[in-house]
Each structure stands twice: as structure tokens, then as C-alpha cells.
Amino acid sequence: MPNFVDVIIPIPLQKLFTYSISSAEADFLQVGVRVAVPFGKSKIYTGIVYRIHTEAPTAYEAKEIHQILDGSPIVNTKQLQLWQWIANYYMCTLGDIMRAALPSAFILESETLISKNNQKTIDESMLKDDEFLIYEALHHQSSLKIHDVSNILNKKNVLPVIKALIEKEAIKVEEEVYEKYIPKLVRYVRLHSKYNSDEALQGLLEDLGRAHKQKEVVLSLFSLAAKTKKPVKVSDLSSAIDASSSIIKTLIDKEIFEVYHIQTDRVTYSGEQTEASKQLNTHQNTAYNEIVESFKTQNVTLLHGVTSSGKTEIYVKLIEDALSKKQQVLYLLPEIALTTQLVNRLQSYFGERVAVFHSKYSTHERVEVWNNVLSNSKKAQIVLGARSSIFMPFDNLGLIIVDEEHEQSFKQFDPAPRYQARDTAVVLANLHKAKVLLGSATPSLESYYNAKQNKYGLVELFQRFNNVLMPDIELVDVQDKRKKKLMKGHFSDRLIEEMSEALSEGYQVILFQNRRGFSPIIECNTCGNSPQCPNCDVSLTFHQYRNQLRCHYCGYNTTMVKNCMACGSPELDSKGFGTQQIEEEVKILFPDYKVARMDLDTTRGKYGYQKIITALEQQEIDILVGTQMLTKGLDFRNIKLVGIMNADSMLNFPDFRAHERSFQLMQQVSGRAGRTKERGKVLIQTYNPHHKILQQVSTNNYAEMFKEQMDERFNFKYPPVYKQIKITLKHKDFNKVETASIWFAKSLRQVFKNNVLGPEAPPVARIRNQFHKNILIKIPKQQSLQKTKEAIIKINNSFQSIKDFRSVRVILNVDNF
Ligand code: ADP
Ligand code: ZN
Ligand code: ZN
Question: Which of 65, 102, 329, 817 has a Cα-to-Cα distance from 696 of 20 to 30 A?
Fold first, then answer.
């Protein structure tokens, strides 16, 4: 009997391709094994065996596979079940998912570029003849395509050779590689070298005779150094002397002390766990018990715990429970770049059992984590990662934690698969009979609604750890302040007062400026023209730091113009204010304090985030100005004041979730204040202090926010009350997109009637020279989601069969929020 396999290849095909295999291959092959297969005229792809069977395809004659690449599956059946669910639910192909799920080193194909791995010295005698030839060739050429490899070896089937070279770490697959290694620079202090001799030191102490405080600090440094026999950290010194760090700063400025940095190396991590987990306090303990109880009847439980209530320590206990049952744990985070803090915390509890998975890590690191999870190795019992870590080859998952579950970045918008990792995690957990804990201080309406409907368990924790009070939130009416001439630039008198007070007491300050709607753009004072992106329908934004105009959609950039491009006038002004401008203003208002900025510009470099976070932790920064990045669960000890520069831009953003998001964002930034002993203070500057969301933020009233927002969602048929699917059409010809989208919407209306909105041009209607049109389909709860999708697919298929429309790209986005 002839034998066949259905193979997933990493390109978006509606159906799986079937290939023929010999009966020997059929005996050997297993589902989840990689095979090299020919496709199209001359391409070769790596595919994953999805099904082994004996039914010949009817529409075409099956080609033979080239080669089997693995002895055992690299993707397990639970993963394939998850892929199938994602493909159905998010209306994408298994090929899309394969590309997103596997480290790229697993997906060799004719386009793959390989190069020598310079990080590793290879014993060439270990290489087989074919392998050696390729390795040798890479000494002369920096990279080779698979096609070149074929030519060198004079054979078609080269993927096994390449695979072997990757396994021997002799070569790597070309890609953008971020290094996992993140050095942490810690600031140390010592006596300046000019006081090394006894006389010089004697002289110094005499000179300082009058300055008691300073002398005390110098002596403390001596006694600390003598006691620990180790270099003294600036932070240790300042906590030892119970004096503000300004005295240390003075001593540094006077060159009595000098500062130096030592890199704490995180890569040569010893693998030892260094700490026992913390003893939970009574509130945490109650919450923990409630979660355990809730898991008896619910698969998913939401932990709504205010900022700094100690949610992480509760997660740690739950992780310990899962590990003791020999189960794997997945810890999902919205953004891995910001969470070195957490990685360290978990590694100190769990040692090398914590593995971090990041889509931007290098090939080898990703393959290593993958293989460790696949083999259920001790080294990867806990996987910590951003959304793509739901694709790891778990075999025995017991618990998934979704931290900061409300964060938008769990949803992938582009490219397909456009999945929501939090929601997919619930499905993944079901496949493993595992439990899911969603955690947030500001839960998404969806999750809280699910909890209220008893679909999820709900546990709430309203006390901060140490019983620190929630920050005191004050609203400042900017309009009123302007009238009374009490604004200096973008700073109200109240904000300046509170900043002065906090800083003089030695505390740190965070100033938050929303990223949206605040990019500075250039406007001509004479004719009103603003420079536009040539490829997109947006104004270019001005980046002072590089003296550039940039497009945030396509990356287009040009040097700042001197004259208006329309009328030639030199009178150009910048409108809108970004973090840069605030930074400038702060420097003028508070010249004696150290100011830093955290936004896309300043964190772009290699260790950008880490440097700023470390500097803040080490109290080298007094005032940090930043965007959204500040909000994501960072735990700082010395922040007393948070200023929100302008609340209105968030509130007025044209999106049905703008109010929910504003509430979350403001509560999260506020949560950075006063996390240890002293109650924190938050000032929110706004033109609209009576806005109900601001009232709810200032009174910490999540429940009321939830109720009011849900009423609106009911009235306007928005999620979570209705489901929605967005269809986007794109083409470089405006008229074609216009006609195509009208056709599409009309066909949809025949089925879904009034629940179709659009076509509508989005706020930025042209991006990268492509015109966009959106159509929105609202789906009532009682309407079958499956049938709805089937109808959309049918309409899409008819659409594709119209010759004129074939070149229009159609993007389906399920749960597009
Ligand atoms: P959340 O995630 O709820 O914002 P964290 O888990 O970051 O809060 O806790 C806030 C701070 O309190 C952290 O610095 C943490 O180490 C500390 N903390 C929380 N629970 C305990 C505990 N039981 N014992 C000691 N310290 C704790
Ligand atoms: Zn002009
Ligand atoms: Zn552009």
C-alpha cells in the first residue's frame, strides 16, 4: 500500500501538502518529525509531519519527500493540537504558526543564510567530509545560501548537512541576534587615590573637621570596608549612614570619594539557589489559600491584587507547589526586556530550573531552551517568557502564570498568527489539564467579566505589602493654573512644589508622559504646513537628539529641514511635547539633580533598558522622565512621587478601550510610588479634573470603573459583550482598495446585517505606500463564532476569485483589541 504524509511548511497555505513516502520511511516516521520537502518549481522547505496515512491526494500527484531530518519528534502532539486551535480560532494557517512557533534554526529552507559561528572554536576533525567542505567555504565567504551549499556539495539534499553543522555549533543561521548576556553595572565608592598616603588622609580629616556630616560619611566608608573586606556599593554606604545621598554626592564632586563600576556577571550564574522563598504575610496567605481552593473547581483564576501587594511572592509559592508535583511551569510576561528584575528574583529562588525564552535570543540559546523543555530537563522546569513562549514543547505543564494579564502586548497584531497569548494560554492549559493564574492590579475588563460570570475564579488582595498606604493621588487643573499663570512650561506650581519636597528629602521622582499623540511635529508659522512622510499619511516627528525628522510607521527619516518645504519660510515651530521636551524643562527647573529619560530613543541601544533601570535602582538618577515603559511591573524602592504630565491625550484617544487603558496606565504608573515604607504621592495634570476616569483613578475605584465601562460596552456592543473580527484590506492603488472594500462589506452585510461596520479608512490611511480600509464585524454572544468564521472565509474565497481583487491583501484579525 502506498504511504503518505501531510506536512506543514512554514508558508501561509490554506491546506497541508501531501507527500509520498516509502514503507520503510512510514515505519520510521513519527508525527512531529521534520522532513525536507520540495515545493513549487525548485524550492526546498523544512516541514513538520502532521499526519501519516495511506490516502493519495486527488488533486495532484504527491511528490516524494527529500529526507527525514529528525530521529524523534521536535514538536509534540499537544503542540500540534494547540496549533490547530490557533489556526481555527485566529483564522490563520498552520504554516503561519509554524514560523512563529519554532526557533528559526529549526526551519531551514532554500532562502536561509548560514554563516560561521565565530563564538565557538571547532575541532575540524569532528566534521564529516561534507560538513568540512561547507565549513571551509565559510572561511572565505561570510555567508552562504542553501542553494550555494547545494552547488558546493553537488547534491540537492543538503539540509541534513546543515542541520549537523548547527548541532555542532559550527555555523549559525543568519538573523537579528540580540545577546542574552546583560551585564549589570553596580556603582562602588572608595576614597580618592590622592588620599592613599597616611599624611594625605590625616590632612583630609583635619580639613573636614568642621564639616561633621561629611567626616562621618568618610569614617562610615572606612568601617564598612573594614567590616565586609569588600568593595563598598554606593547604595550600601548611603543606607549605612542614614543620611541623604546628597552628602555622598558632594564628597564625590569634591574628589574626596571616587566612584567606579564593577560588572556583576549574570551569565556565569552559579546555578545555586541563594534564597528561600519569603514567608507570606496573612493577606498574601489568605489569597494563596483562596487560589488553591479556587483551583479545585476552576481552571482559571484571576488574582486582582493592588500594586505592591506582593503578587509575585504568591506566584512563587504556587510555582513551588507545581514543581513539587514534578510539573512544568510557564510564567508569561508582557515584555521580557523590562524584566531582568524578575528573572533575578526567580533565579534566586529556583536556581537553574528557570529558563528564559525570548524570540530575540540567538539561535543556539533558543534551540537550547527548546530542547531542554522538550526533554523535560531539570534546567527548564520554569519557562519565563513573553507571548511566544506559549509555543514551547511542554510535556507536563502544571501551571501557567500570566503576569500583568491586562497588557496589550499579549496580543500579536502583525504578522499572523494574530493570537492573544493570555487567551491561548487558557487553551494550552486545558490540553495539559493545567491551571492558569491571571494576575493584575488592573485586570482587563474581559478577565474581570469572566470572573464575575463565574467562568474564572476570583481572588482579591487590597493591602499593599508592609501595609503601606496606596499613594495619595491629587488632580491638578491645568486650565485653572494657566489662567492664574501658575504654569512654568508644562509644570504646574503644585508639581514643582511636590518635586522639590521629594527631592530634598532624598527621594526619586518619576514623570510620565503618554507616548500617544505627543510626538513633537514641526509646523510652519507662515503657511501652517507640516512635513509629511512620503510613504504614509502622517506628519513626521521631530527627534531633537538626532536632529532628524522620522516616520513612526515606516521608519523613514531625513535630517531636520531649515526652511518650510512648502513656502520656504525659516519660521518653523515644534508642536506637541514629548519626553525630550519635558527632560529639557526639568533640567532647567532642577539643575542640581540628575535627570534621565526612558523612551524608545534612549532604550534602543544594547543594554538600554538595563542601564537606566540599574541607574535608577542605584539611585544615580533623581528624576526619570518616561513613557509607557515605566508602567510594566517594575519594583523600585525609593520613588516617592509620580507626576503624570497630561492625562487628557490618553482619555481622548479614539478607541473603545481608551478609558479602560487610561485607568490601567495611570494606576500602574502610580503604583511605582511609595512601594516600601513611606506613602507615595501622585500628581495628575489635566484639563478635565472632573472626568470620571480620573475620579476613579484618584479614589482607586476599580469596581466603579468596571461597572461604568461595562455599561458602555453593553450599550455600544463592544467586547467583552460582543466579540469582534476586523478585516483590513490593503493595496497601493486607492481606487482598488475602495472598490474592493465596498464589495467585501456589502457581501458581509448580506449575512451579518447591521453588525458590519465600515469600510472605513483608519486614522492613518496610508502606510508604506499601501492604502488601508477596515471593516469590523460585531458578533453577539448567542451567534456561533464557528459559523461566523465559516461565512467570512466563504466570502473571502469568492473575493479572491475575482480577478480584479486578487492583488488586494486581506488581513483577518480575530479579537482585534
Ligand atoms: P506586586 O507584584 O503585587 O506589585 P511585589 O511582589 O513586587 O508586588 O512585592 C512588592 C515588594 O514587597 C517586593 O519588593 C517584594 O520583595 C516585597 N514583598 C512582597 N511580599 C513579601 C513577603 N511576604 N516578605 C517580604 N517581602 C515581600
Ligand atoms: Zn510654510
Ligand atoms: Zn512613513
Answer: 817
CATH of the domain spanning 110-177 = 1.10.10
User: In the prediction, which pLDDT does 606 show?
Assistant: 57
CA distance 487 to 482: 6
Task: Name which residue sits closest to atom 25 of ligand 1, judged by CA.
Answer: 278
List pocket residues of ligand 1, CB cut-off 6 Å: 278-281, 284, 305, 307-313, 465, 635, 675
What is the average per-residue pLDDT within 57-73?
A: 90
Q: Whose atoms come closest to the Cα of 556: which ligand?
A: 3
Q: How far is the CA of 529 from the centre of ligand 2 (A)?
A: 5
How far is it, in rounded angstroms, from Cα 543 to Cα 556? 13
Closest ligand (CA of 346): 1
Question: 252: closest CA among 211, 218, 210, 220?
Answer: 218
pLDDT for res 546: 80
Tell me, what's the pLDDT at 430? 98
Longest distance between any two alpha carbons in the chain, whole Å: 100
Boundaries of every domain in the chain? 3-106, 110-177, 193-255, 282-467, 472-516+578-711, 519-576, 723-814
DSSP 777-791: EEE-TTS-HHHHHHH
Same fold, 282-467 and 472-516+578-711: yes
**CA 549 – ligand 3 centroid, Å:** 11
Residue 107 pLDDT: 83
Residue 87: per-residue pLDDT: 97
Atom of ligand 1 nearest to the CA of 280: 23
Residue range 3-106 forms a domain whose CATH class is alpha beta
- Cell numbers describing residue 736: 482598488
d(CA 178, CA 343): 17
Give the best-scoring range by mean pLDDT among 96-110, 194-208, 625-639, 732-746.
Answer: 732-746
Quick check: helix, strand or coil at residue 457? strand
Taking 50 as the threshold, does the pLDDT of residue 179 lie above it? Answer: no
CATH architecture of 282-467: 3-Layer(aba) Sandwich (3.40)
* Domain 723-814 = CATH 3.30.70.600: yes
Could you report the per-residue pLDDT of 290-329, keeping only the tens digit for each? 999 999 999 999 999 998 899 999 999 999 999 999 999 9
Q: Which runs of consecutive H residues, i.e. helices, occur in 511-622?
A: 579-589, 608-617
Ligand 1 atom with minimal separation from the 633 CA: 4
Q: Is 92 marked within a binding site?
A: no
Mean pLDDT of 323-340: 87
The three state secondary structure string of 296-344 is: CCCCEEEEEECCCCCHHHHHHHHHHHHHHCCCEEEEECCCHHHCHHHHH
Residue type, 157: N
Which pLDDT does position 363 carry in this prediction?
67
Of the pLDDT bands very low, low, confident and very high (cuts 50, 70, 90), residue 176 is very low
* 564 annotated to a ligand binding site: yes
Between CA 522 and CA 559 the distance in angstroms is 13
Q: Is the pLDDT of residue 272 over 70?
A: no
Closest ligand 1 atom to residue 309 Cα is 3
Mean pLDDT of all residues in 502-521: 84
Q: With bands split at pLDDT 50, 70 and 90, how would you rate the model's confidence at 144?
A: confident
What SS3 class is residue 498? helix
Q: What pLDDT score does 607 carry?
A: 66
Please state, in angstroms and as integers, the Cα–Cα distance from residue 269 to each residue in 17, 183, 350, following that order.
Answer: 45, 12, 12
Identify the architecture of domain 472-516+578-711 in CATH. 3-Layer(aba) Sandwich (3.40)
Report yes or no: 408 and 653 within 8 Å, Cβ to Cβ. Answer: no
At 89-107, the pLDDT tens digits run 999 999 999 999 998 778 8
